[in-house]
Design goal:
122 residues; alpha+beta; six-stranded antiparallel β-sheet
């Protein structure tokens, strides 16, 4: 297996990798606390999610997307081209902000099994 990589895609399109804990916390806060001046409900709805991807050049790849309303979606792919899904996407509603930070931190730390287990329990 090749070396792992990790990228955080912020709500408004900026991407960084690998993200620090502070960057993860800021991205989650940006989702849960909509306080930007001049933004309308439509603006927030247009940019309603952020995601963290963790994977390997030759696969697999894991994606954890979180929306502004706390819906979390977990997906596993055979490669980074999103061509072969390894399992059906799982979804959790009303994910608390603190758990969103923790799940992204765990995935960024290379612990997809821990994140997968969370979605199996939920």
């Amino acid at each position: 297996m090749s070396n792992p990589w990790c990228y955080l895609l912020y709500r408004y399109g900026e991407e960084t990798g690998p993200p620090t804990r502070d960057e993860i916390s800021a991205a989650v806060q940006e989702l849960y606390q909509e306080i930007l001046p001049g933004m309308t409900e439509g603006d927030y709805e247009e940019h309603d999610a952020a995601s963290l991807r963790y994977g390997y050049d030759e696969g697999p790849m894991y994606v954890l997307e979180i929306t502004r309303h706390g819906t979390a979606r977990w997906a596993e792919w055979a490669d980074q081209d999103y061509e072969v899904e390894l399992c059906p996407m799982r979804e959790v509603q009303s994910l608390p902000q603190e758990e969103a930070v923790l799940l992204w931190e765990q995935l960024a730390a290379g612990e997809p099994d821990v994140v997968r287990a969370y979605f199996r329990r939920a």
